[in-house]
Amino acid sequence: MELRLRLLLLALICLHAPRWASAQQPEEATDLDHPFLAEAIQAFDHLRIRLGGSLQDRVVYDVGTESPCSPFTNVSNGLFGFSVGCLGMDRWDKLNDLFQRTGAIVTFGVNALYGRYNVRRSIWAGKWNSTNAYDFIKYTISKGYPVSSWEFGNELSGHGIGAKVDAKLYGKDVIEFKSILRQLYKAPLSQPLLLGPGGFFDQQWYSQLFETSGHGVVNALSHHVYNHGGGM
Ligand SMILES: *[C@@H]1O[C@H](CO)[C@@H](O)[C@H](O)[C@H]1NC(C)=O
Ligand SMILES: *[C@@H]1O[C@H](CO)[C@@H](O)[C@H](O)[C@H]1NC(C)=O
Question: Gene3D superfamilies from the xrefs (predicted)?
Answer without folding.
Answer: Glycosidases
